[in-house]
Amino acid sequence: MTNNIHEYSHKRLNVLTGEWVLVSPHRAKRPWQGQNEDVANEVRPSHDETCYLCSGNVRANGEKNPDYTDVFVFTNDFAALQKDSETFSVKDGLLQAESEQGICKVICFSPDHSKSLANMSVPAINKVVKTWQHEYKTLGELPLINYVQIFENKGAIMGCSNPHPHGQIWSQSTLPNEVIKKDTQQKQYYDTNKSTILSDYLTQEFEAKERIIYENKDFVVLVPFWATWPFETMIVPKEAQKHILEMNDNQTEAFADAISVITKAYDKLFNISFPYSSGIHQAPTNNEDNTHWHWHMSFYPPLLRSATVKKFMVGYEMFGSPQRDITPEWAANTLKALV
Q1: Measured between alpha carbons, how far is 194 from 181 in angstroms, rounded to an integer?
Q2: Active-site residue list
Q3: Does residue 307 have a pLDDT over 80?
Q4: pLDDT range class, residue 163, cuts 50, 70, 90
Q5: CB of 285 closer than 8 Å to CB of 190
Q6: Which residues of 26-48 are buried (b: 16+ CB within 10 A; e: fewer)?
């Protein structure tokens, strides 16, 4: 690959979405006089009596949490999707709307208020993975649900309203925008090549050896060639799997290991509890074949140069396309040194 890609502005194609990202490596040299975020490195107690998510505490809706000892799941008290909403549609010329139904859940990773995934053991993270599998299966089996989105917002900078270690699961009757893009791209590729797009992509990444951060027997952690966020990473199963239910017990532990490695590396990067949004994209639960799907987990961290400098998606990113300064290769080398 030409060295020009590390020196001059260019576009990179995200093969999973069909969209382009502008890369401007020369801009990483410019001086910074912009926004600096406050660094939140407060020491939290193991149990906070004021926390709605801690074990034994009463939530905002008046329900009391059980004295849970590992993973705890409950239906979101302020869900964005309603299970029993009325079915309706609006079609008035260019004005269109459709009802959407779904179920939203909160998953507390640990009863320990002070921990994040980076501070948890691999066996403890594996319990979270097993819970993800259970929820994907039970929610996906409902006739109402055609997609299950598992995600986490970590840190106040990402809009997280509670510091207790937790994620969310939103399940709904239709496919959301990002999933539609990835479903379309993966199906087109599979129909033409009879292999998943991420299987063939991993083959190239193993040959290039430029963006891989970590691997174990079953998973690869890498910075995607088309990464948008400065230190964006992706965990991909080496074996093509449609969804997380296809993992066996050894593979769920390997997945937990991969999560542990990258979240620990993130925390070392700027010596803070590193903020990010993470999510798993996997096959819809719509009773279709979906053999073209190759599930993966992405991490989108907002920090750019230090613990106090954030990457904002504004201006050109809003009106043109995503743009980044540091190259994915530089980001991968930086994170690899911390593993």
Answers
A1: 19
A2: 166
A3: no
A4: confident
A5: no
A6: eeeeeeeeeeeeeeeeeebeeeb
Q: In 62-148, where does DSSP find H-type helix?
A: 122-140
What is the tens place of the pLDDT at every residue in 176-220? 999 999 999 999 999 999 999 999 999 999 999 999 999 999 999
For 95-196, where are the alpha helices, taking DSSP H only? 122-140, 177-193
From CA 253, how far away is CA 259, in angstroms rounded?
A: 10
Q: Which structure tokens are listed for 115?
A: 């921990």
Rounded CA-CA distance 220/138 in Å is 28
Burial class (CB in 10 A: 0-12, 13-18, 19+), 287: exposed
Domains, the chain, ordered by start: 43-336 (3.30.428.10)
Structure tokens at 114: 């002070």
Contact 104, 173 (CB under 8 A): no
Helix 249-269 vs helix 328-336: crossing angle, to nearest 10 = 100
Confidence class of residue 304 from pLDDT cuts 50, 70 and 90? confident
Residues of the chain above pLDDT 90, percent: 80
